[in-house]
Structure formats: structure tokens, C-alpha cells
């Protein structure tokens, strides 16, 4: 058993799923190996009663998913430095197997270039994995593990050295594409990302459009993502492809109106620091099956 890497966990909650949160924390406590220290961040809401030993942070307002998770990272010291690996878990998820943390320790210990692991999300009732939860273009077989170019925000493990080197999630994104922003920066710094089908988080199947701000945030953050990270010649190509894909999906008039409003907002508002990836990173993404134009 590999137990040299210290593992922590960050759980973000809005306080509206106390039973699911408690079940998740119980599943974390049952993990094999050394105990996992957990911080629960209340994102603009008071926290319910939690098990002894769980760290807590209550934010006075909802700061969004990436900023809330960044608060959780800092609860483990600057950049999460008190631990070697951080798990990020949705508050309505659950770890059905007791060896997930141990598999993470083994994976990171065996591969010093591995920076991020994306878990497989499976519906607890049916066991199925939605296509959108497989972070690659060839997503028809969710049981195939592979190197990938992004990861799932509420079902992953990150080596804290990644945060020390490239920083945390982009606070201003609030919701959508913050994982890809971090993934691209990590890949540009030389880290690798794995999708592991044997590391499972149970989570009810949902539609991303359940969030009222979905279409606007997705479009705005897509523009910010490109402006922040892509070499200048690729920005219009990447955004042009996504505009065409959005139109091809024939969204409702209301959804398209929100999407186009977000697209305009992404051009008119500050996107944060621009750090374009190296061209060798573009080639690396291409070899991994997802060139940064789609």
C-alpha cells in the first residue's frame, strides 16, 4: 500500500443538500489508507452540523464555483501546501468504493508528471456515465481510461504542486470552463491529466442547462478561456468553431439569445491575465486528441 502522499478533500456546498453532503463525507471517511482531511466550504450559506474533524469555511455570499474551491484550497495552506493531493468532490456525490483515495496515491506516486486525475461519474441508480462526463472527444466508451486534456470539476484529484506552479482556478469565471482553464495552464507547464474509469464518483444524472445562467456563462467563459490561453491566431478559429457548433445544435430562441449575449460579454469585459500557451503545448493537445480549436 502506498501511503506516503497526504490527501485532503474540498467540498463546496450551498447548504441545500445536507443529507447528500453527510453521505459524501461518510464515504470519504471510509477510504482505505491514511485518514483524509476534509474542508467544507459554505458558498453563501450556513453549514449544517458536520462530523467532528471536518474543517469549515462559511462565505457570506455565493462567490461561484471556482472561487469557492480556491477558498477550499487555501484552507490547506497557501496553494494547498499542507497536503500533496486534493480531491474535489460535488456535495451530492458519493465515493462508492473505499479504494479511490489509495488508487490516487498510487497513480501520483508512480507518475511524477501526472498532475490531475479526472474520475468517472456514474449515476447511482443505473450505473451509466453521461457522454458529457467523459472529458475527451471520443467519449463513447466511458470504461476506457486515457490521457486527456481537461477534467471534471466535482470529481477529480489534483497534485497541489500544480497549484503552486500555475495558480488556482479562475475566480471570475463563476461557473463553466474553469477546469479547462486550469487544465490548459497545467499542460502548458508540463503536467499530464488522466481520465480513470476505475475511480468512480456516484452522482445523479443531470443536465447542465438546469443552471439559470448556463448559456450566458458558457459563452462568456468560452471567450475568456480563448483570450487568456490561446495564441492569437487560434482565438478566432476556436471561437468560430464553437459558434458554428452552437448554431448547429439549434438551441431555443431564449437560449441562443443568452448565448450570444454571453459571447459579446466575453469580448467586452476583462478576462484576467493573458498567458498564451506555447505552440508545443498546442501540438501536445493535438496529439492527445483534442487540438485547441474545438
Stretches with pLDDT under 50, minimum 5 residues: none
What's the overall average pLDDT, rounded? 95
Percent helix: 25-40%
Helices, by number, come to 9
Strand order of the largest sheet: 3-2-1-4-7-5-8-6
Number of strands: 8
Q: Biggest sheet, in brief?
A: 8 strands, mixed
Strand content: 15-25%
Using only C-alpha atoms, the radius of gyration works out to 18 Å
- Alpha-beta content class: alpha/beta
Order of helices and strands: EHEEHEHEEEHHEHHHH
What distance separates the N and C termini? 40 Å
| Gross morphology | globular
Topology:
Elements (H helix, E strand, L loop, with lengths): L6 E7 L4 H12 L7 E7 L11 E5 L5 H10 L10 E6 L9 H11 L3 E9 L23 E3 L6 E5 H7 L11 H11 L3 E11 L11 H16 L4 H15 L4 H16 L10 H9 L7
Which terms summarize this structure?
single chain, 294 residues, alpha/beta, 8-stranded mixed sheet
Can you describe what's shown?
- The chain has 294 residues and is an alpha/beta fold.
- The chain has helices at residues 18-29, 65-74, 100-110, 160-166, 178-188, 214-229, 234-248, 253-268, 279-287; strands at residues 7-13, 37-43, 55-59, 85-90, 114-122, 146-148, 155-159, 192-202.
- The protein has an 8-stranded mixed beta sheet with strand order 3-2-1-4-7-5-8-6, with helices on both faces.
- The chain is globular and about 50 Å long.
- The mean pLDDT is 95.
Can you summarize this structure?
The protein has nine helices and eight strands. The chain is α/β, with parallel strands linked by helices and 294 residues long.
Amino acid at each position: 500500500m502506498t501511503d506516503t502522499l497526504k490527501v485532503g478533500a474540498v467540498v463546496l456546498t450551498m447548504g441545500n443538500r445536507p443529507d447528500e453532503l453527510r453521505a459524501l463525507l461518510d464515504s470519504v471517511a471510509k477510504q482505505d489508507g491514511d485518514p483524509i482531511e476534509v474542508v467544507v466550504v459554505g458558498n453563501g450559506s450556513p453549514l449544517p452540523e458536520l462530523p467532528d474533524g471536518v474543517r469549515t469555511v462559511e462565505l457570506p455570499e455565493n462567490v461561484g464555483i471556482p472561487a469557492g474551491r480556491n477558498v477550499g484550497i487555501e484552507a490547506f495552506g497557501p496553494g494547498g501546501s499542507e497536503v500533496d493531493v486534493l480531491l474535489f468532490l460535488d456535495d451530492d456525490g458519493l465515493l462508492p468504493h473505499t479504494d479511490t483515495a489509495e488508487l490516487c496515491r498510487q497513480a501520483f506516486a508512480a507518475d511524477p508528471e501526472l498532475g490531475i486525475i479526472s474520475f468517472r461519474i456514474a449515476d447511482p441508480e443505473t450505473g451509466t456515465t453521461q457522454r458529457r462526463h467523459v472529458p475527451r472527444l471520443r467519449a463513447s466508451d466511458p470504461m476506457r481510461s486515457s490521457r486527456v486534456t481537461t477534467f471534471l470539476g466535482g470529481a477529480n484529484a489534483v497534485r497541489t504542486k500544480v497549484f503552486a506552479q500555475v495558480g488556482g482556478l479562475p475566480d471570475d469565471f463563476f461557473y463553466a470552463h474553469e477546469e479547462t482553464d486550469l487544465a490548459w495552464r497545467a499542460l502548458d507547464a508540463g503536467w499530464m491529466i488522466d481520465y480513470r474509469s476505475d475511480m468512480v464518483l456516484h452522482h445523479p444524472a443531470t443536465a447542465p442547462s438546469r443552471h439559470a445562467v448556463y448559456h450566458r456563462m458558457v459563452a462568456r467563459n468560452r471567450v475568456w478561456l480563448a483570450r487568456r490561453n490561446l495564441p492569437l491566431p487560434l482565438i478566432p478559429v476556436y471561437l468560430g468553431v464553437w459558434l458554428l457548433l452552437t448554431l448547429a445544435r439549434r438551441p431555443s430562441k431564449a437560449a441562443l439569445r443568452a448565448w450570444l449575449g454571453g459571447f459579446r460579454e466575453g469580448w467586452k469585459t476583462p478576462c484576467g491575465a493573458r498567458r498564451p500557451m506555447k505552440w508545443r503545448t498546442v501540438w501536445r493537445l493535438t496529439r492527445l486528441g483534442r487540438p485547441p480549436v474545438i
